[in-house]
Design a protein that fits this description.
Layout lengths: L2 E5 L5 H15 L6 H7 L7 H6 L2 E6 L2 E9 L25 E8 L8 H15 L4 E7 L3 H6 L3 E8 L6 E9 L6
Parallel strand pairs: 4-5
Antiparallel strand pairs: 1-2, 2-3, 3-4, 5-7, 6-7
Length: about 180
Amino acid sequence: MTLTSRLARLDDVPVLLPLIDAAITELQKGFLDEAQIAASRAIMGIDTQLIEDGTYYVAEWDGTVVGCGGWSRRATLYGGDHSRGRDPALLDPARDPARIRAMYTHPRFARRGVGRLILARCEAAAHAEGFTSVELMATLAGRPLYEAAGFEPVAHVADAAGGVPVPLVRMRKSIATPAC
């Protein structure tokens, strides 16, 4: 079996939407209750701005899309197309961390290197554009991956945009030397 990645295209969106839904529904079990998982949909999802910016990747296992995620040079830290509070302002690589965004793995392919592959692509691309750090907003389910990849927690927050508070962890990492 071969795991590869490529830049996402807008025509990938119909394949990505059910993958993202499965990841939200299945991978958060054991970390969140059913009400929090349902509320997560208000603050998670695809961000097509990342695809348009050329900073969003899909991971494929023998040609089947099994994960997605990206990075951003824009101020929005997390959320999908439908989320409130998005900020398209461009970040300054000299002072701002790039954002790691919208990371999802299909549950059948969790813990097989999908997230690490996408993170490595994101960190290398952000580093190539002059960023020396990256940050993200992690779900409780995603936190172990990010910690294993060298991210450190900087703040614990709860987002109640979906009607029920969903716990999240803001995390940061230096990429002064890229991962790959």
